[in-house]
User: Fold this.
Amino acid sequence: MATTTSKPGSTPRSLASTHPDGARLPRLTAISLVLAVAGTGVAAYLTSVHYDDALLLCGVGNCETVQQSKYAEIAGIPVALLGLLMYLALAALGLLRWRRPDVRPAATTLAFAVALAGTIYAAYLTYLEIWVIDAICQWCVTSAILTLGILVVESVAVWRVLGVTDS
Assistant:
């Protein structure tokens, strides 16, 4: 990774973590973005599998049973597509926070709300996998873990935005 220093003897900073105008990408936003991009990949894959079963690769569990269950769609819309939209929204909010610091509090709060809703829904889907469908999809578990990771990061971020301190 390329680094640069602004003054001799100063601490190097990553070029990958800076905005073209020199604004640094906040660490929590960067972590959230990385998780959202990973989630986008998983959800895009699961969405494509929904339309073409031949693409399904499953080394652990029984992904096919989960993907073909009645719970894989809501009103004809693949749940994976809803997950993809969630991850894209979270990535967009992360980019917005980086590029527009003036909207950071609102964007952080919204990202937290989206991640909370996604985590609750992922927990429900995990319950269905274990207790109703009686099959586990490794990709669904991966997505649930990514969503939970984003919620943890966004919880810290919203905590900071709200100015909550240990007193």
Q: What stands out?
A: Strands lie at 3-4, 13-14, 73-74, 77-78. Confidence is low (pLDDT under 50) at residues 1-20.
